Hints:
- By secondary structure, the chain is an all-alpha fold.
- Helix content is 57%, strand content 0%.
- The protein has three helices and no strands.
- Helix 1 (11-28) packs across helix 2 and helix 2 (37-46) packs antiparallel against helix 3 (48-54).
- It is globular.
Amino acid sequence: xxxxxxxxDDDAELGGYADVRIAAQAVDRPGEPVPSQGQIIxxxxxxxxxxxxxxxxxxxx
Length: 61
């Protein structure tokens, strides 16, 4: 296994990352909406604020 930074200019690399993230979320959190590949890539390119938009709120009272 190799751990490395994602190249935000490499569409194929980001697409592969997004595919893995979509598959993992579908298994780990069945029934929750899964973001699109475009949303995930956009969130990576936009920064942290984009990631916050993808995550559903889990606030408890």
